[in-house]
Amino acid sequence: MPHDTPLIATLVGAFVLAFVFGALAQRLRLSPLVGYLLAGVMAGPFTPGFVADQHIAVELAEVGIILLMFGVGLHFSLRDLLSVKAIAVPGAVLQIGVATLMGMGLAYAMGWSLGGGIVFGLALSVASTVVLLRALQERRMIESEQGRIAVGWLIVEDLAMVLALVLLPAVSGALGGKSVEVGAAGAWFGPMDVWTTLGVTLGKVAGFVIFMLVIGRRVIPLVMHWVAHVGSRELFRLAVLAIALGVAFGSAKLFGVSFALGAFFAGMVLSESPLSHRAAEETLPLRDAFAVLFFVSVGMLVDPTIILTNPLPLLATLAIVLVGKSLAAYLLVRVFGYSKLTAFTISASLAQIGEFSFILVALGVSLELLPKEGRDLILAAAIFSIVANPFFFLILDRFRTKVAAKAAKAVDQPAEPVPVPTLPVTEKSDHTVIVGYGRVGRLVADGLKAAGLPLLVIEDQEDRVEELRASGFEVIDANAASPAAITAANVEGAKRLILAIPDGFEASGVLKKARAVNPQIEIIARAHTDAEVDRLRQTGANFIIMGEREVARGMLGHVLKEEEEASPTVAGPTPPPEAGSVVAEAGPETAPEATGAAPDAQRSDTAADA
Ligand code: AMP
Questions:
Q1: Among 324, 306, 457, CA closest to 373
Q2: DSSP class per residue in 395-410
Q3: Sorting pLDDT into bands at 50, 70 and 90, what band is 43?
Q4: Ligand 1 atom nearest to CA at 408
């Protein structure tokens, strides 16, 4: 029966096996990725039992890639993309060059042709979109500077692969492979030489970008706004899917760019719209499910016997992917003057290979450039490097925590000549220092000012600093993690420090510095995850407010109060449960003060958000 319905059989088989093995991996405290890959090996043709359709599985995985890249595009403006071009373009190009050379070296050692070496090297040089984005998303790093560089890097790699895929057939004959009549642009242009192919491809990519920026940028948000006003949730969801998949597919067909690139641009032209958040949410469940299929499809392609038949070449291939490539990326990013953390993030992100490599090797084998053995090596290296990738990120996480405080200062500013600004020291003492004047800090600062308490604000975003000055606040225009800011704010002589920034790890870096100069100061911090709460508690915060719990508390309190007013006999004065704000050593009187402002605060919070 499954033969009649290969799509359903593959979809169901992949989801069920991925779930079973993913859950098993979770139980064994392994990354679920290992489970998904294993599920793929199980569903693949090299193991007995159920065999899913490889082509269908790969296509389904492509849907996951489209939705992932669309989601990333939604968080990316053109400005963000351009802001990283100075590092992403030369970085990616050089890294591809270095990795390709390493791959060619290995291919030479194995006695393959030059063409085989080039395909092999290129396949080793490009990272998998899915693996990279998932790792960054898990850590909410996409929107950080490091995340942006990594995504920019990915886009450049993607473009390079688009070029490689159209150029390979054109040069195949010259490299000792099969000569093909090249018509990258189909029958329009007839047979073309390499330069024409290159020119036409670049022209089409440029045409695509211009089309998206000029027409897509106007039409897509317009359509979305219209649908949003129609008020049908279902239609909105459909619109998001239709745009993401439609643009990806259309641009691949019309302009010859990859699905991923098409989807990224579709997301990017929507990113400035206030609807982008909703659009992102609507695609989340599908995106996650299909991204899992990606890992299953990788597992399916791998012939596990390669470990026994070719252990040494496999080790060498892995060494290039895991060590050679990441080292090259690390050095490149450092040479461009970025911090160790950024360099580490990029190299951890790139220490794996995936879908592009598969497409390349498939083409290489069909052009008779690459021996079949090369394809098996690449596939096996992909599975191992994907399994290994979470460990790289684990090390990165450790490193991130360690440099959290330092990072805030050095984060990704290329070494500009603006270091150590000597800031004028405040005359205030016994005052409150607020760090961050965003959605949270703003309400706290305004409240304290209204109450007539002495305070000052540390803020590093220029427009906010100006706003603060205009409203008559004393501001220290600096990153709170810098020693200069701590001194200028006279933390040593302050009564209280309020860390109103969203990143709890960064806040704990500031906290440590403040504690070092003033052991008595009362420190109130903001957190969004349990890990941040733990970290802040360890570093000595007196009072930690976890945003999500307070929101829940506010909602519950509101409902209970409403119910009580409606029928006073029913509820009685049930106070909302203690939502878990953590008090480490603080006097209890700080609690009501801090949470008392919550209902109002939340209301304006949402207003400011929208
Ligand atoms: P929100 O998440 O809306 O509450 O905004 C947080 C605010 O804190 C923003 O205005 C940021 O510019 C500011 N901010 C974040 N980190 C720091 C830091 N290390 N030093 C100073 N200001 C910061």
A1: 306
A2: HHHHHHHHHHHHHHHH
A3: very high
A4: 19
178-187, 203-212, 407-416: range with lowest mean pLDDT: 407-416
**504-522 pLDDT, tens digit each:** 888 988 999 999 999 999 9
Cβ atoms of 502 and 528 closer than 8 Å: yes
Q: Which CATH class is domain 432-609?
A: alpha beta
The pLDDT value given to residue 596: 37
Residues carrying CATH 3.40.50.720, the chain: 432-609
Report yes or no on whether pTM surpasses 0.70. no
What is the structure's pLDDT at 325?
Answer: 93
497 CA → ligand 1 middle, Å: 14
In angstroms, what CA-CA distances link 539 with 7, 502, 580, 581?
53, 17, 18, 16
Residue closest by Cα to atom 9 of ligand 1? 438
Residues near ligand 1 with C-beta < 6 Å? 408, 435-441, 458-461, 464, 479-481, 500-502, 506
590 HSE (CA, 13 A, CB side): 20
Q: Tell me: domain 12-189+275-403, CATH 3.20.20.70, correct?
A: no
Reduce the DSSP state of residue 257 to 3 states and report it.
coil
Q: List where CATH 1.20.1530.20 sits in the chain.
A: 12-189+275-403
Q: Is the dihedral of CA 14, 16, 22, 28 positive or negative?
A: negative
Distance 273 CA to ligand 1 centre (A): 23
